[in-house]
Amino acid sequence: MSEQGAPPAPRGKRGVKPSGKPTLKTIAQMTGLAVTTISRALNNAPELAQETRDRVQKIAAEIGYLPDRAALRLKTGRTNVISLILEPDEQIYGFGTSLVTGITEALRDTAYHLVITPLFRNVQPIEPIRHIVRNRMADGVIFSKAETFDERIRFLLDHDFPFVSHGRSHWPEAHPFVDFDNEAYAHGATLRLAARGCRRVSIILPDSALTYTEHLKSGMERGAREAGIAHEFAADVNLDSATDAIRNYVIKRSRRPDGPDGYVCASEVSALAVIGGLTDAGHEVGRTAHVVTKQSTSMFMQFRPPAETVEEDFIAAGRDLGALLLRRIAGETENLHAVARPRFDWKD
């Protein structure tokens, strides 16, 4: 039968009406190719001609073919699924969307599909990891908010299960990760605030368990020491605090005689709250007080905030996460990490 013809109706067995669900055999009948060739073409086997792969994949899409993942898992031990674990609030300001964009770019032209696994509130972060590993729901996992001694990383290392974390840990064994050099960022941002005339700088830190909290603290401490200015870490609030709580904290702290006149911000949301608090306390941001923040979306600049920014590219991070996980699944174990350096482009 020609490629343009409709596939023959599957013949029933023992009077049972067939489901009509397209199979590898259906595509084989339509193309005249062997079932094994169809399977390799759908998995982008490099030894097949690109024309053959394109032809098979086009027909599979047209007839609505979907692989039987249960059968695939039984036959090969693989699912061709990569799971990205996200908390609902990680979609705020496009963090999750940016990661997904980058990861899917890395998975393009492979047999892998990305599945989002939600991490709901009041559920321990280790639970979805355990579920995926014990039930072989994916060939690898990606997750964020790595802690200094993250039990998810420990569990995955102990089970030799492929993963890449966004952020790193302090476990002695090397593990795959993608990160932003937050120490270099906080160091450079602090020096910038000092150059703008700030005499005391502060930062709203992430949760104390997260590894990059240490990096931010270390960078600010080093920058303040080199510049000969005072520094402090905001008390009673962190990046998970409500924006109103951050804003009120900044207002109260700014009204004291020793209030900070410069802030390093680790997120755009916290930067907007800090700018609001400084303004409410009587400062003119950009003149009597200054703010430097990381920027990961174009949305932040739509508010036209009087802050200086340093880009953190989450789409690029997603591409790195996907590429490193593919290498880990393929059996690599060395040099599976990427750390993005901040680029300072100050406008005087």
From TrEMBL:
The lineage of its organism: Bacteria, Pseudomonadati, Pseudomonadota, Alphaproteobacteria, Hyphomicrobiales. SMART domains: HTH_LACI. Keywords: DNA-binding, Transcription, Transcription regulation. It comes from the Bacteria. It comes from Devosia honganensis. The keyword GTP-binding does not apply. PROSITE patterns: HTH_LACI_2. InterPro entries: HTH_LacI, LacI/GalR-like_sensor, Lambda_DNA-bd_dom_sf, Peripla_BP_I. This is LacI family transcriptional regulator. Transmembrane segments: none annotated. Residues 22-76 form the HTH lacI-type domain. Residues 1-23 are annotated as: Disordered. The keyword Transcription regulation applies. Pfam families: LacI, Peripla_BP_3.
